[in-house]
UniProtKB/TrEMBL annotation:
SMART domains: AAA. GO terms for molecular function: ATP binding; ATP hydrolysis activity; branched-chain amino acid transmembrane transporter activity. This is ABC transporter ATP-binding protein. CDD domains: ABC_TM1139_LivF_branched. Keywords: Amino-acid transport, ATP-binding, Nucleotide-binding, Transport. The lineage of its organism: Bacteria, Pseudomonadati, Pseudomonadota, Alphaproteobacteria, Rhodobacterales. It comes from Litoreibacter roseus.
Length: 246
């Protein structure tokens, strides 16, 4: 069967504050039903790439100055972030982007606000089947839950918008290895059982290449290597420069 391309980023350049060139021609594709990893060290441009796709650069004084971004074959550059969510593309930001003063459940419910359709409580139950910890903590104020629970809450909230593609920024950040495994395991389940496609930005190459199908490696705003995850894992340069580190 032919795999469909959902997202196609074609040779984009991104400039911050009119002068700082951060992406110097990045191209990548996200296949429907796949987990695509965007790898690279601190400051390589992973977050910037995700924000370019979800149209979140504007508030950071960043701008796509060259190239194109297409989703399902349609140009999506310049749409507002809410319009991207309507098209099924949602970003889960790096760090703990839950509303601290709301409960876990209230946070999840805020994720459904763009929708007009469907049964929100059934979707809430579905989120709880993937994240039983969130169910246990549903009445807790999000600010008092652990880092791992907040990461789960952020993913759960994104799920409430019924996304086709989740742009997931650095889910492993600041978490103990066991929790990283748990979260990646859930990402894999969501991919396999719900058909959610992922573009996953990660510094933790080791973990990301175990769960992803395809990977791109960014260095200083350029893609320096890409390939099926299994091939990247065996590549001597990847082993030396990336897998040794994490
Ligand atoms: P990290 O894992 O640290 O988030 P990253 O690969 O996601 O790294 P980016 O956050 O995209 O990298 O940053 C790429 C470069 O762009 C860095 O040099 C960073 O300092 C710069 N940068 C990011 N945001 C801005 C901004 N709002 N204004 C100016 N420069 C920025």
């Amino acid at each position: 069967a032919k795999t469909e391309t959902l997202l196609e980023v074609n040779n984009i350049e991104v400039i911050y504050n009119h002068v700082i060139l951060v992406l110097k021609g990045v191209s990548l594709k996200v296949a429907q039903g796949g987990i695509t990893a965007l790898l690279g060290g601190n400051g390589a441009g992973k977050t910037t790439t995700l924000k370019a796709v979800s149209n979140l650069l504007h508030s950071e004084r960043g701008e796509v100055t060259k190239g194109s971004i297409q989703y399902r074959g349609e140009r999506v550059q310049g749409l507002d972030p809410a319009a991207m969510v309507k098209r099924g593309v949602i970003q889960v930001m790096e760090g703990r982007h839950c509303f601290e003063h709301l409960t876990v459940e209230e946070n999840l419910l805020t994720g459904a606000y763009t929708r007009r359709d469907g049964n929100v409580s059934a979707d809430l139950d579905k989120v709880y089947t993937y994240f039983p910890r969130l169910k246990e903590r549903r009445k807790s104020q999000a600010g008092y839950t652990s880092g791992g629970e907040q990461q789960m809450c952020a993913i759960g909230r994104a799920l409430m918008s019924k996304p086709e593609t989740i742009l997931l920024d650095e889910p492993s950040m600041g978490l103990a290895p066991q929790l990283v495994e748990e979260i990646f395991g859930i990402v894999k389940d969501l991919n396999e059982r719900e058909g959610v496609s992922f573009l996953l930005a990660e510094q933790n190459t080791n973990v990301a290449l175990r769960f992803a199908h395809y990977g791109y490696i960014l260095e200083s705003g350029r893609v320096v290597m890409d390939g099926p995850a299994a091939e990247l894992r065996e590549n001597p340069d990847v082993k030396e420069f990336y897998l040794g580190m994490s």
